[in-house]
Design brief:
The chain contains six helices and eight strands. By secondary structure, it is α/β, with parallel strands linked by helices. Strand 7 and strand 8 form a beta hairpin. Helix 2 crosses helix 5 and helix 3 packs across helix 4. The longest helix is centred in the first third of the chain and has 24 residues. The chain is extended, with a radius of gyration of 30 Å. The relative contact order is 0.12.
């Protein structure tokens, strides 16, 4: 009888262990979000910046698309007509026209639109809109700024006055197209999109705090 009781207890232990192991293997794993499909439009100039060239529309779009693609959280859909024409030609050569039609079925969830809205020698601001491709509603909007200091250097110049020659050192501030400020702003745009569209964690509070600081700073400016 004692032996039977021991066997019974052993059976209960094995049965309980089996249920535990079974429950462990059937426990749902942490779900990793799928990449977000987006399309980036040309970056337009709404500020009438004298240094802005027509070629910058595609250039800035390419930079932003590259930043988003390299993050690993986005599938960037190409919308450039010239690029699509080349893809169609390549596809028809090797796999037929029907294959390209299937590739066109991949539609973006969001359309990313950015436009240069303001600039200074060392400052740029972009208006960013994230549009839901299905409803055409603006899901997110934000002003994104980029800042960088002007490059200054000291230079000696020779001055002739009343038969006397002397040198004077002057400081020259080199003002160029604010390319580093633009790059800084585009990086900020990519980081913001990664936060609100994919990560959706504590970074949202950080960007909200940054936006409040930006608004307070703009309110403190004397425009008149």
């Amino acid at each position: 009888m004692k032996k039977f009781s021991s066997l019974k207890n052993l059976f209960i232990i094995f049965a309980t262990s089996g249920l535990t192991i079974f429950g462990t293997f059937n426990r749902p794993l942490y779900s990793i979000p799928e990449p977000i499909t987006v399309a980036v439009t040309k970056v337009l100039d709404r500020s009438n910046a004298p240094w802005f060239k027509k070629s910058f529309e595609d250039k800035f779009k390419t930079i932003l698309s590259t930043e988003l693609a390299s993050a690993g959280h986005f599938i960037v859909v190409e919308r450039d007509q010239e690029a699509l024409k080349e893809l169609r030609a390549e596809s028809s050569l090797f796999e037929g026209e029907e294959n390209f039609k299937e590739m066109e079925l991949l539609k973006p969830k969001y359309i990313i639109r950015a436009a240069l809205s303001d600039y200074e020698d060392n400052y740029v601001s972009f208006d960013l809109k994230v549009i839901n491709a299905k409803t055409a509603a603006i899901a997110y909007s934000r002003s994104i700024e980029g800042n960088v200091s002007n490059v200054s250097q000291k230079q000696s110049i020779k001055i002739n006055k009343n038969d006397f020659s002397f040198k004077e050192e002057v400081e020259i501030v080199k003002k160029t197209v604010p390319s580093r400020a633009i790059r800084s702003a585009i990086n900020e745009i990519a980081g913001y999109l990664d936060c609100v569209l994919y990560l959706k964690d504590e970074c949202i509070a950080e960007y909200e705090a940054k936006e409040e600081r930006r608004k307070r700073s703009n309110d403190a400016l004397d425009f008149f």
